[in-house]
Amino acid sequence: TEEYPKANANVRYLHRRIWMRIWVGMPSRDIDKWSRCHVFSPACIATLHHLMYTVLWKKGENTVMVIDTHVHVFPDNIAKKAGAKLQAVAQIPCHTDLTEADTRIKLKEWGIDLGVVLPIATKPSQQRSINNWAKTVQHGGLISFGSIHPDAEDALSELDTIKEYGLYGVKLHPDYQCFFPDDEKYFPLYEKMAALGLPVAFHTGYDPVSPDVIYAPPERIRALARAIPALKVIGAHLGGHMQYDEVEKYIVGENIYIDISMAPLTCRQEQFERIIKNHGVDKVLFASDCPWTTPGMELQMLRKASLSPEETELILAGNAIKLLNYNV
C-alpha cells in the first residue's frame, strides 16, 4: 500500500462491483474497464481476477474437472532461491512461493482440480535428482512430468526411469537447456519418448532468459512434429509465446497440442480465439504457467471465447485426460 497508495480504496470499491456482478448481473467487462483505469499492484490485479472469475465460473453451471497442465513447483530447500532468481529474469510477480504445500493450497483456492508439474533439468547432472523428486509430488492434486537434459550422456536411459516412475511425460525448455528442438541429433530421444508413450512439452517462442535467440520458434516445433509423427508434442504458450502470427502460419492445424498458458498477458482475444478454433479444440490444453500467471486469467480468456460447453470442457480437462492417459 505504500507503493500503491490508492490500492486499499480501489480494492474495496472493486470488491463491491464484483459482488454486484455476481448477484445482479453487471457485465464483467465493466469491471475489467474500471480496473484498468485505477492504480493496482500486479499482484493485486491477479488476485482480483481470481476472485472475480473463479467465483463467477463456480457460480455458473460448470461442474467439470479443471486441469492446469502447466504448473511450476520446486523442492522446498531451493524454492525461495529459485523464485527470486526467476522473478529477476521475468520481471513479473510470482503468485505462489513455489513450494508443494503453497501450490496445492493456491490451486485448490483457484478452483483447479489437478495441476501438472513441469520440472526442468537445466544441467545434465540434475536429471535423476529432479525425477526422483517429481515422483514424490504425485498426490494431493498434483501429478508430474519428468525431465531430461538433451545433451546428457545418459539422457536416453533416463527416459526409462521417467516411465518406470509413472511420470506423465517429459518437459524440455530449449532456452534454458540451449538446444534447437529440431536438431536431428536429438531424434533418438524423441523416438524413444514416442515408443514409451511419453508426451513431450516444450517451452516455445520468446523467453526473457534468452532474449536474442529464440530456440523453439513455431517453425522448428512444426519441423520436429512432422519428422516424428508418432511423438505427442505439446507446445506451451499457444505454440509460440509472443509469436502468434507465426503460430497461425506454422502450428495451426498440425499434429501438435498447444496449451493456453500466458496468453492473457500477450495475445489479443480475437487472435486467441482464432488460433484455438482453427487449430482444433481437441488439441488445446488448459494451462496457466503457475506461478507466473494465475488460472483465473486463462479462465477469463477462455470464457470470453465463443465456444460450446462441450468444446470448453475438452480444453479444461478432457483433452489432458486423454493425452496423459490419466485415470480420473
Ordered list of secondary-structure elements with their pairings:
Blueprint: H1 7-24, H2 28-36, H3 42-59, E1 67-71, H4 76-90, H5 100-109, E2 114-117, H6 127-136, E3 142-144, E4 146-147, H7 155-164, E5 170-172, H8 174-177, H9 187-196, E6 200-202, H10 218-227, E7 233-235, H11 244-250, E8 257-259, H12 263-266, H13 269-279, E9 284-285, H14 295-304, H15 309-324
Parallel strand pairs: 1-2, 2-3, 4-5, 5-6, 6-7, 7-8, 8-9
Helix pairs in contact: 1-2, 1-3, 3-14, 7-9, 10-11
Mind explaining what this structure looks like?
- This protein has 328 residues and is α/β, with parallel strands linked by helices.
- It has one domain: TIM Barrel (Alpha-Beta Barrel).
- Helices cover 49% and strands 9% of the residues.
- Strands 4-5-6-7-8-9 form a six-stranded parallel beta sheet.
- Helix 10 links the parallel strand 6 and strand 7.
- Helix 1 runs antiparallel to helix 2 and helix 10 packs parallel to helix 11.
- It is globular and about 45 Å long.
- It starts with 6 loop residues before the first helix and ends with a helix.
- The relative contact order is 0.12.
- The N terminus is likely disordered.
In one word, what is the shape? globular
Number of strands: 9
Structural class: alpha/beta
Which strands sit side by side, in order, in the main sheet?
4-5-6-7-8-9
Report the β-strand fraction as a percent range.
5-15%
Number of domains: 1
Give the count of helical stretches: 15
Q: State the order of secondary-structure elements, H for helix, E for strand.
A: HHHEHHEHEEHEHHEHEHEHHEHH
CATH superfamily placement: Metal-dependent hydrolases
CATH topology: TIM Barrel
Radius of gyration: 19 Å
> So what's the CATH class?
Alpha Beta
